[in-house]
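## retry 2 of 3
previous attempt timed out at serialization; input unchanged, resubmitting
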Amino acid sequence: MEQPIRVSLVRESIRVPLVDEQVNIALHEERFDFSSPPVLATSGWPFGLNPIRVDGLQKGVATVVDYVVMPSFFRVVRWMLLLSDDSHDLAVTSTIQCMRRGGDVLFTEFAILGDCGTIPYELDVVVDGDKVKLVVTSGYDGELTARTSKIGIFN
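## retry succeeded, writing output
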């Protein structure tokens, strides 16, 4: 379920008099309030306010693990991703940030932690109409579970 994002803008002007002239200073402050429902109280799910879970990722199969609607051409989203094989206590996590720019999407993955040598995978972020999809292709021999949480979306 999509949650509203409240954004408030504050604009102030300050005039500082000098001996013969004035210096005009303009301040621009943006405050973003990424509202979400209360944290889910499910035991074993400490992964954020809007988690998505996709079970059964198989080796070599490209799987859409989350998407976001981005109807305008310049928007940004950041995902937290957790891939795990819970039966073998293996997990890897990372953060993906992407920006839709026209019909293209740019993305980067960073903050990669965990069993990345044991759980190989490939990421892609693709545009499909007004949706931008996060796609994971597992290189792991067993089945994985993907958990994602969107951190923020703005334009």
